[in-house]
Amino acid sequence: MIRLPIPATWLVPAATAAWAAWTWAHAHSLQREKERARITALYVYPFLSAYEDLQSRIYKILELDGLPGLGKRYPDGSHAEETLYILVRFFGWMVAVNRYGPYTQHATVIRYSTAIRRAFATSSRDNKVGPFNFFAAEQKAPGKMVMQNMDGEFGPEMDTISYYEFRDCIRSPYRKPESSAVEQILETLHKAKHAKDIVGKERLILAQNHPADLLNYLEKKLGYSYFPATRKKCGSSMEA
Description:
By secondary structure, this protein is mainly alpha-helical. It has one domain. 62% of the residues lie in helices and 5% in strands. The longest helix is centred in the N-terminal third of the chain and has 52 residues. 28% of the residues are buried.
């Protein structure tokens, strides 16, 4: 007696279930990529921009003797406030990306960020407490001063206030931050005519080197660069 094959009716629901599982996984993967792209746009890009602005300004002042040029552009001396704004904006985005961005547990990013914070926080016999010296607790305060929450497409987002708002804030006797570090930075930048006149420039040298390394590392991972040429670091043998 010849047996006819039994129709493989089980294949249809199995294939349907497999297709549904693949579709769900694919959609979930796309959603993760979309969310990662959103977080990158909200935190990583401004974070990199703040780092680039800081290391670039320090290099221009110390290695290219940029103070005379800044003085001509800002004859009222507000280049000091602008440089301070670049610094505290950096502090603000550093805190934000370390808390909300995709690198909160990234060992290399944490190592570089820690080195940058330590460069501003460290003091010694040869590098005494003074301008550009922000201890760990002090670094968050000025950073928060420039950060603000705003409504975005998917809920609350973070951004920084403009330089002009910041300038008005630190010039106001009612809103001015109670920080000796802020006062000392403004004082040395207002008085200095050239890089050699800046008190605390040793901290700036260290602070510029670490962001340059971090930018080079992250931009290689992301596949694009804010700076098309090769970044240069401030030398450690500047004239006193």
